[in-house]
Input
Amino acid sequence: MNTTLERKEVKETANVENQNDQRSVKISVRDLDLFYGDNQALYQVSLDIREKEVTALIGPSGCGKSTFLRTLNRMNDLIDSVRINGDIHINGNNIYQSKDVIELRTKVGMVFQKPNLFPMSIYDNVAYGPRMQGIKNKKELNQIVEESLRGAAIWDEVKDRLKTSALGLSGGQQQRVCIARAIAMKPDVILMDEPTSALDPISTLKVEELIAHLKKDYTIVIVTHNMQQAARVSDKTAFFLNGEVIEFEQTDQIFSMPKDSRTEDYVTGRFG
Amino acid sequence: MRKFKDNLLLGLLWFGAFLTVAILLIIVGYIFYKGIGLINLEFIFGDYSPVGGGGIWPMIITTIYTIVISLVIATPIGILAAVYLQEYAKQGRLVRMIRFATESLTGIPSIIYGLFGAVFFVTTLAMGMSIISASLTLTIIVLPVIIRTTEEALKTVPASYREGSLALGSTKLQTLYKVILPSAMPGILSGIILSMGRIIGESAAIFLTAGTVAAMPEGIFSSARTLTVHSYLVTQESGDIELAAAIGIVLIVMILALNFAATFISKKLNKADY
Output
């Protein structure tokens, strides 16, 4: 295995970027191993995700990119057999040492592969998170709901039907309401797990435009199967293969002159 | 030929559906035909008279007592047990054994429960032949039904709802209370309706635990007679099919009314129809 060699390369490039990039590191991952029972799914993952950037995670199915994404808000805790070694710091706090996973998930929002709105009204969906945090004031909730829906660029489409079922919306609209629901928590980071894989091209385009807009305020980490999407929306791209980070670079560099031959094979469509 | 096979299958499907509806209509029709002549306000709201001609109001009240008491006890326990088994318990041998036990319990003939109730509640706990003994026995009978249906209802709640709620920083309890239980409510409610049917239809176990006293119960510790027991006894003693059929009509109407009430409550609980 030439893993160690590859990793050094990644770390070196990360150091170079430290000098070039003014944005501060939002999420810092060091030597992360993850096991499902006896199967290791992530090997020594180390990367720094910068504030208010879009970081894309690409790689073939089963490479660990979604698993990695879910370590960032500890969604893997829901699976009993998962064990984790290594450190993840978000805003300088080690998230696996803190016991307060609730607090973490209010700061790190998530949008899933398929829209998963609850069977409630649009309003109740967006107000769900804030309500669970104990916000009861009607005025305050109204304001949060409107801001969030505006933030997700769907206010104009739903403002007249806030009290109707969210499940009556189209798939693309539902996914944008999911994004509104996530930003209603005023998180620092938004994780997106293939957010457009269930959407038609036009809805996909709208979500991509939204991502470009959202990165002004949020740090975004997005898993995608779609290479063009990664190229369109992200600033940095990490290429995962068999649970390792093969290459983590500026997106244009990953797609124009990748350093690793495996990255090149993948982004040019030779496998995956 | 293919067309013929297609038509044949369609015919069989249609026949199956038709037969089911026909049997139901025949039975209900026969009961109404036989019994409707006896139905009047005096019959329903009148007190029982041993010499004949009286009403069945005491039996209606006794039946309502047993339904309410058993469901008030069985529903919360059943839902809590199902939530524990489905959402909290580590899926291992113990849970498999509990599941197996609940499944077996649904299959045991009710007279066995009746015998148990007669020994345990009536004699050992000295509650005597009474509404409370019968209701506790009925609680044991419907508990597995409620647990199983609630578990099935919880299973149908998509995992994505749980993930979505937890990812928004809500606790497991909030997720359960605000998202999972409301989504599972229609299924849970159908379990409760099924249980009501079981309670109303039960006779053997009640016969052995509540006795047959044909008078207005003074309280839950009185012995009393439910509608089904009454229907059995009048047929047995006097062969009065018309009276039994009239009681049948009352039972059918009660079950329909309870079903409508349950559906109505579930809609109210959901506030809007999604």
Notes: The mean pLDDT of chain B is 88. The first helix of chain B runs from residue 2 to 35.
